[in-house]
Amino acid sequence: MTDQPSNFKRFVEVGRVVLLTSGPQAGHIAVIAEIIDHNRCPIRSHRPSSTAPQPACPAQSFPYRHLTLTPFVLTKLPRAAGSGIIRKHLEKEGTIEKWNKSAWAQKREAVEKRRKLNDFERFCVVLAKKQRRDTVRKAVKKASA
């Protein structure tokens, strides 16, 4: 029997950064602090800024089906680490900045921004798209001629 490399790259492990997909904290990122069983794990979150009175998501047990694993992992994170230790590791490794620069986070932000537009702002987007389309069409016609 030959050992084939696994197709899976992201595993549930202590220190894995996850995206919460349901509940009032949906859209926030958190870190797996410990593994309870094959259905759930306790997570800890970071504070979005030093002035925030509470973390974005309180420390709690969360089912795996409501988490999405990200490619980021905190290295050398001790098991059952508290919020303070996790926050220090997040800052030291720059994980929050890496997440904010990722295409995944930027796409989520763009979708959220688009979702919050009012009717007039959506109309302005349509006009801007028309203007851009006209400019591109003229440039292509000029280049091909």
From TrEMBL:
Transmembrane segments: none annotated. GO terms for molecular function: RNA binding; structural constituent of ribosome. GO terms for cellular component: cytosolic large ribosomal subunit. CDD domains: eL14. It comes from the Eukaryota. GO terms for biological process: ribosomal large subunit biogenesis; translation. Residues 11-38 form the KOW domain. SMART domains: KOW (SM00739). InterPro entries: KOW, Rib_uL2_dom2, Ribosomal_eL14, Ribosomal_eL14_dom, Translation_prot_SH3-like_sf. Keywords: Ribonucleoprotein, Ribosomal protein. PANTHER family: 60S RIBOSOMAL PROTEIN L14, LARGE RIBOSOMAL SUBUNIT PROTEIN EL14. Belongs to the eukaryotic ribosomal protein eL14 family. This is KOW domain-containing protein.
